[in-house]
Amino acid sequence: MRYIIATILIVLGAMLVLENIGVASFNMGNAWFFIYPVIFVVLGIKWIIDRYRNRGGSWIFGSFFFIFGTLLLLDRFEVISFVFKDVFKLWPLLIVYFGFLFIGKSKGPNVIITSGGDKKSKSHYNGSIFTVGSHEYNQPNWKVEPMNLSNLAGDFYLDFSKAYIPEKEIPIKISALAGDVHLLIPENIDFRVHASVKAGDIDVVGRTADGINRSLQYETENYHMATRKLDLHLKLKAGSIRVDYV
């Protein structure tokens, strides 16, 4: 919220300065039509930066909002004609995004990896898809409970280093048609994960798989003996799955 407020103040101030020095003439009653495209651009940039700094975010949604906001601004300055309802004209971006997600380097088989390096047969988890939006769990001392998070499209960011994790096995299921999943897990917490993507990449504490129809399973060495542990099932049609130690 502070980014939105800051953006509104900066844009409003800049508009007033330009009008006062005679560089441009604005109808301040229509100022909002200039402000909200800038908000889209700023949010897009923020989400892209957060994604590459491993702080959540999304390059898909970030780039979309950046492009959408930029086109609206070009319309406001009469460079092109593009209004809010023209957002549907951007549907070809979905093809571009899927094109990037289909690019993969790994050609090897899907694998299951334990902490000792053993490989086993693969399996699948099927989830359901309901909504569009993002899920973030990064508040101090948030309580970890069994979850089943499903989205049509969106990002999932769970920081378990800030969480209260009870002494039990906790199942967590995440599924989406398109998006990014990023989990941060303390090194003293045991977990196992089944991650799969139809098109995209997977990185589980340094173990990777990317390309088409990829899946990867990983299990910490003491998982079965641990009393406090996470059982993770992560499934995307297109996107990126990342699990990091902190």
From TrEMBL:
**Which ranges of the sequence are coiled-coil?**
none
* Keyword line: Membrane, Transmembrane, Transmembrane helix
Q: Does the keyword 4Fe-4S apply?
A: no
Classification via InterPro entries? Cell_wall_LiaF, LiaF-like_C, LiaF_C, LiaF_TM
Question: Where do transmembrane segments lie in this chain?
Answer: 30-49, 56-74, 80-103
Q: Which residues form the Cell wall-active antibiotics response LiaF-like C-terminal domain?
A: 132-243
GO terms for cellular component: membrane
In this chain the LiaF transmembrane domain maps to 5-107
A single Pfam family, by name?
Answer: LiaF-like_C
Q: Which domain of life is it from?
A: Bacteria
Q: What is this protein called?
A: Lia operon protein LiaF
